[in-house]
Design brief:
By secondary structure, the protein is of the alpha+beta class. It contains 18 helices and 31 strands. 52% of the residues lie in helices and 14% in strands. The relative contact order is 0.04.
Length: 1204
């Protein structure tokens, strides 16, 4: 069977790379792994596609010490295999037994004994493997859910593992704790900083270097408690690929270059352009050897000939545009099948044929259809499919029967019009021919049922009210003593509103803001009472408004009547007396405005009125007909009444006085004749006529005065009524503002109560969040740590007992050694014992890996080599093999069997020593883990205690916040600054003060303040003067007291005879003048001397001042130099870090060379000592040959004594 061998591989995208030891780099992708030797530049390709090696290679991890690597398979439920290099021998298989998981996304070796792997979705667990045996020792579920993550393991102890989610930039750091066979991963720190981490690297001292997407570098020490920024990038824009960071020779190396060869384009040349034949934009392209396929959001697939793109072979639809169209399309040349994947997840296979020309299906929509159709449904998203179907059915039926419904409504309208005409004719008919209205009632039964139903409803309502009224009511006890009005007023004032000024309210319902308890129930009660009070205020104002509206209607009618009467009187005056008293009332607006008539603003149609579903159409029509008939009958009755009243009372009405005086007196016929022909009757008639004219003139004058007076009275009453109405309107407007203020006060009280409730809820939520999210997990974590502590302690005790047993066993081995050589003499046994204690010349091993020590112990017993051991262990095994070679200078009594027993016992002893060292390492790790676990328990307990104290403090603060509530008070409005712009009516209620007056008041205040400050300064100076005078007075009083003391002392002094004789002699010699002259000389000399001293001191003072200034300048210059020296020192220290490191390395290398030299000298001394011992042994053998050994015990004792 032929076999294919891979010669070379070129990877496109490299995601996993690892170092194997110090000289080899491994790169994995797909099925292959490339090994590159950095020294020889040799490349080696290994393929992993067999049953023995697994299916594919991913998640490559290299061992930090041994040339060994681990890879994961590329399949579901993969295995992790550990191989050696360069032999590619499998060491172990790591199999994860959990079900329903996809694979691994990252892996890394932790220290020298353990392997870490990170599973993918949905669990994202970190698994710890003992790679030597493939045993899963620990699992932990991480909180990062990125599909691409990386694990970084620290090179120092304790072992720390950094988990980095690349897309999100989140990072967790875990600590690997080992206690014998118990292995655990503890979350050491969790990144909560706002920076988005893109790369990380561990330093040689165990610190963690981080780099964000901008390029800033941060350093996290081993404890992980704080983060320092060691490098800051000037630019703040994130880099798209993300900077890469690695710790390099004790420093930091950051790569921020782009992987692209070039980023800019000089120019583009358009070679050809073709229409895509698609209806929407964002068209995707897929090609193969023969076809070019285009697809997109419109659901169309266009297939073109690759040789000629202008040739469209096929265009058809596979997915609907409303569901996102097509996501991917692939054509298969062998089966002529087109596979399309839609955005909705549908996978469609279409059979295509070889087309020579364009073939477009009829189902392909045009551009207008695609762009005009909506991708959203017109139905509510909350409706179910059955409800949508039923609604569509109703719409369809409504559309089908729309014409029939319109015809029925038209017939019904015609019937209604006919019925209305019949009723009108019936009303116009005579009383004999008139029919009762019940005749036109077409639905008597329905009306009777409706009336009966209404009666039943009214009866039920009456019974319900009677039941409620007949129940026992609880009456609150009343106070026996009369309450204080001031207390009641204070209670209303402290309620925080002015509602009590407008509506009467029970004082028991008024809540004092200071004395309230602030509970939630009381808050709810206050909100409900506030809404009720707001409603009452609105109802109260509505009543005032309706009263004023009716008052306005009355005033308008009264004004109209008065104006009509005034117009009538003025017309009478003008017609009868030619007096023009016309008054213009056009300035009065006696008509309702449109804004004052709501019924004219909104017009309500019949179909807009809510109709009870149970009412039938016939009942509604009957109601409408009744209303129309009633309205028309009332109109007809009113017109008929007026008409008949006028016909009946014509000629019978009372004659008015003004109508009589308007009539002229008939002129007598005699006045037409000659006065000389008048008779007595004519004279009497003329006299009566003249008296009648005088009476008529007086009556008319009286009527004129009456009209004038009435016009004046009506005009005054009209103006007074207008003024009074306007004043009432102003008062209503003020009441409206005050009532609105009261409503807003109630609203503000309710909003403040809601705010308090929100504050209460936030406090409770914060406490609950602390208890649930922090305290409960912390308590559980502490409990788990406490439970695990006993297991760790028992493991430590077991390890300590095992170490003690191995120590005792090692001590017994030397005692058993002598028993293995009973056939040899004591000197030979001593010689073998010296060979037994020999070890390889490498000295003590520095290996502390339990796995390597255990493997080396097995190799020592078996005599074989292992590929997983490091160079140090292999050299130790080689040294053991060299020690097993039998030397040539052994005594003849020691044969090969003795040497074989010696080598076997020595290897067993070395194996015990290695096991003891391994157990010691394991015990040290266990004790360190136990100590760290104990510290973790203490920290967790302190954290729990801190959280409990925080919760208690938060509860106390919440309770204090609830007690320390805000109090709302309504205060009298003070002075405010009014804007001069706007309507002048806005300034009606304002007292305008010029701004200059305000500035003058401010200046007066400033002047008064200055005067006050001056007075305060004078007061302070006066107080200082008084204190100085008091101090001076105290000093003089103290001086006086001192003088009194001196006087008292002098009075107590006794003058002897000798002193008296001396004074008398001094007086007789005239010493007074002489002493005065001498005193003047002494005084003048003293003044000269003091002046000289003062001059000298002044010159000295000037010199000192100059010296001080000079030294001050020198100090300033020295300080500048010191600062510059500090800056230079900082620069030099920064530059000298590398030199210090090199100097440290040279010192370490010299120290290592010295240690190696010392070891060589020690080894040479040991060899010389061994050679000396061999010579002594040879000397003893020669002595034994010269002097045979005595068999007697006494001789043996004598020999020992002589030897010692």
């Amino acid at each position: 069977m032929p076999n294919a061998e891979t010669k070379w591989v070129k990877f496109g995208e490299i995601k996993t790379i690892a170092f194997l030891g110090k000289d080899t780099v491994a790169i994995a992708s797909g099925l292959h792994v490339i090994f590159i030797n950095l020294n020889t530049k040799e490349e080696r390709v290994e393929k992993f596609d067999s049953k023995e090696r697994g299916e594919g290679a991913r998640c490559l991890a290299g061992h930090p010490v041994v040339p060994m690597f681990a890879i994961s398979e590329r399949r579901a439920n993969p295995k992790v295999r550990v191989y050696t290099y360069p032999s590619i021998n499998k060491v172990s298989d790591c199999v994860y037994r959990e079900k329903n998981w996809t694979g691994y996304i990252s892996s890394a070796f932790a220290g020298t004994d353990y392997l870490l792997t990170l599973t993918s979705s949905p669990s994202f667990k970190m698994i710890v493997w003992l790679w030597r045996t493939g045993e899963c020792v620990a699992t932990v579920k991480t909180g990062i859910t990125d599909e691409y993550q990386t694990l970084y393991s620290s090179p120092t102890s304790p072992t720390l593992i950094a988990q980095l989610g690349v897309p999100s930039g989140l990072m967790n750091v875990y600590e690997l704790n080992i206690c014998s066979k118990i292995v655990s991963l503890v979350l050491s720190s969790q990144d909560s900083k706002p920076e988005r981490i893109t790369s990380a690297s561990w330093t040689y001292d165990g610190s963690l270097l981080l780099s964000d997407d901008v390029g800033n570098v941060y350093l996290t020490p081993t404890d992980g408690k704080r983060r320092h920024q060691v490098l800051q990038r000037l630019e703040t824009a994130p880099q798209p690929p993300g900077p890469l960071l690695v710790a390099f020779r004790g420093g930091v190396s950051v790569a921020n270059t782009s992987p692209n060869l070039f980023d800019d384009y000089q120019r583009f040349v358009l070679a050809d352009a073709q229409l895509s034949s698609h209806r929407l934009r964002d068209v995707k392209i897929n090609t193969d050897s023969r076809y070019v396929i285009t697809f997109g959001y419109d659901g169309l697939v266009a297939i073109r000939n690759r040789a000629s793109l202008s040739e469209l072979l096929c265009l058809f639809t596979t997915h609907h545009r409303q569901e996102g169209g097509i996501k991917l399309a692939v054509v298969s040349l062998s089966t002529s099948m087109l596979i399309t994947l839609g955005k909705n997840g549908n996978l469609v296979a279409s059979k295509i044929s070889q087309l020579e020309s364009v073939e477009i299906g009829d189902h392909v929509p045009n551009v207008e259809v695609v762009l005009s159709s909506s991708t959203r449904t017109e139905w509510d998203e909350d409706l179910t499919w059955m409800e949508v179907k039923e609604a569509k059915k109703l719409d369809r039926e409504r559309d089908e029967f729309a014409i029939e419904r319109a015809s029925i409504l038209s017939d019904f309208g015609n019937l209604r019009d006919k019925l209305k005409a019949l009723i009108d004719d019936n009303e116009k008919a005579s009383e004999v021919a008139k029919l009762p209205l019940e005749t036109f009632d077409l639905d008597k039964e329905g009306r009777a049922r409706l009336i009966e139903r209404n009666h039943e409803g009214q009866g039920n309502l009456v019974r319900t009210l009677e039941e409620k009224a007949s129940r026992e009511a609880e009456i609150k006890a009343l106070n026996l003593l009369k309450g204080n009005d001031d207390d009641e007023e204070e209670k209303f004032v402290l309620s925080g509103t002015t509602t009590h000024r407008w509506i009467r309210e029970d004082p028991s319902r008024v809540v004092n803001q200071i004395l309230r308890d602030g509970s939630y129930c009381e808050g709810v009660k206050r909100n409900i009472l506030g809404k009720i009070r707001e409603e009452k205020l609105k109802i109260y104002f509505n009543k005032l408004f309706e009263t004023m509206r009716s008052r306005k209607s009355t005033e308008i009618e009264l004004a109209k009547n008065r104006i009509a009467r005034i117009q009538y009187c003025t017309s009478e005056l003008k017609q009868m007396f030619q007096v023009d008293c016309t008054i213009d009332h056009s300035w009065l607006k006696l008509e309702w405005q449109e804004s004052e008539r709501p019924e004219s603003v909104v017009e309500v149609e019949d179909e807009e009125v809510y109709r009870v579903i149970n009412d039938s159409g016939a009942e509604a029509n009957v109601k409408r007909l009744d209303n129309s008939v009633t309205r028309e009958s009332s109109v007809f009755t009113d017109s008929f009444r007026r008409r008949e009243l006028k016909k009946m009372m014509d000629g019978v009405l009372e004659v008015k006085w003004e109508d009589e005086i308007k009539k002229d007196i008939a002129r007598p016929d005699c006045l037409t004749r000659d006065p000389s022909t008048y008779s007595e009757d004519d004279l009497r008639i003329i006299e009566n006529y003249e008296s009648a004219l005088k009476d008529l003139g007086r009556e008319r004058e009286k009527y004129r005065r009456y009209l004038e007076r009435e016009v004046q009275v009506l005009e005054e009453s009209l103006k007074s009524s207008i003024v009074n109405f306007n004043e009432e309107m102003k008062q209503l407007h003020l009441k409206r503002l005050k009532i609105e203020s009261a409503v807003l006060q109630e609203t503000l009280m309710r909003l403040r109560e809601c705010q308090r409730h929100q504050l209460r809820l936030k406090g409770m939520e914060a406490v609950a969040s602390l208890e649930i999210n922090e305290l409960a997990p912390a308590v559980d974590h502490t409990k788990n740590l406490t439970e695990n502590f006993s297991a760790l302690e028992s493991a430590v005790n077991e390890t300590r007992v095992r170490y003690d047993n191995l120590s005792k066993r090692e001590k017994l081995l030397e005692g058993k050694f002598r028993g293995e050589f009973t056939d040899l003499k004591q000197p030979m046994v001593e010689h073998l014992l010296r060979q037994y204690k020999k070890r390889p010349r490498l000295g003590q091993m520095t290996c502390t890996s339990v796995t390597y020590l255990g493997e080396m112990g097995k190799c020592i017993l078996s005599g074989e080599k292992s590929e997983i051991l490091p160079r140090e262990c292999l050299d130790f095994l080689k040294g053991m093999d060299m020690l097993d070679v039998m030397p040539s200078g052994l005594p003849s009594q020691i044969d090969g069997s003795h040497w074989m027993i010696l080598c076997k016992l020595r290897r067993f002893k070395v194996e015990i020593e290695i096991r003891l060292k391994s157990c010691a390492v394991e015990l040290a790790e266990a004790e360190q883990t136990l100590s760290s676990h104990q510290k973790t328990i203490q920290n967790s307990q302190s954290r729990v205690q801190q959280l409990r104290e925080t919760i208690t403090e938060r509860k106390r603060l919440n309770a204090e916040a609830m007690r320390d509530m805000e109090v709302q008070l309504v205060l009298t409005m003070g002075q405010i600054e009014t804007q001069l712009s706007g309507d002048p009516r806005d300034l009606d209620n304002a007292v305008l003060v010029p701004f200059d007056v305000v500035l003058g008041v401010n200046d007066a205040i400033v002047a008064a303040g200055r005067k006050k400050l001056g007075a305060m300064k004078r007061t302070m100076e006066f107080r200082r003067t008084i204190e100085w005078q008091e101090w001076r007075h105290a000093c003089m009083r103290m001086t006086l007291e001192d003088l009194k003391e001196d006087l008292k002392t002098l009075q107590g002094v006794k003058v002897t005879r000798e002193i008296q004789m001396y004074l008398m002699r001094h007086d007789s010699m005239g010493g007074i003048d002489k002493d005065g002259h001498i005193s003047e000389k002494i005084l003048s000399s003293t003044q000269e001397r003091l002046s000289r001293i003062l001059t000298a001191e002044k010159s000295r003072l000037f010199d000192i001042i100059k010296t001080v200034n000079l030294w001050q300048k020198r100090n300033d210059r020295l300080e500048d130099k010191i600062e510059k020296a500090k800056a230079e020192n900082c620069k030099m220290s920064v530059l000298a870090n590398d030199e210090a490191r090199l100097r440290q390395e040279r010192f370490v290398r010299a120290k290592v060379k010295a240690i190696m030299k010392r070891n060589r000298l020690v080894k040479r001394i040991q060899d010389n000592y061994a050679e000396l011992m061999s010579l002594r042994t040879h000397l003893e053998l020669l002595r034994l040959k010269t002097y045979p050994t005595l068999r007697l015990k006494d001789a043996t004792r004598f020999k020992k004594n002589s030897f010692h």
